[in-house]
Amino acid sequence: MIEINIDLFTTLTRYYPKGSGSLKVEKGTTAGGLIHKLGIPDGSVSLIFINGKRALPDQALVGNDKVGLFPLVAGG
């Protein structure tokens, strides 16, 4: 198991893990796997950042990573 830190933005905040913004996940978990584990519906995340850098869903997480997830945003 590894521990990661999670920041969820706007409409995704309802999926925060209970108790804090940190979570233990299995070693080898990907960003996409994390999204699934948090129960976030498919297609709800438009941007993934890991340690401040843009990432893809297949990027594996390592201990102490800081993951930011952003939803689709509409405006005008």
TrEMBL record:
- Give the source's domain of life in one word: Bacteria
Q: Which parts of the chain are coiled coil?
A: none
Where, by residue number, does the polypeptide cross the bilayer? none
Q: Matching InterPro entries, A to Z? A: Beta-grasp_dom_sf, Mopterin_synth/thiamin_S_b, ThiS/MoaD-like
Q: What is this protein called?
A: MoaD/ThiS family protein
Species? Desulfobacter hydrogenophilus
- Upper taxonomic classification of the species? Bacteria, Pseudomonadati, Thermodesulfobacteriota, Desulfobacteria, Desulfobacterales
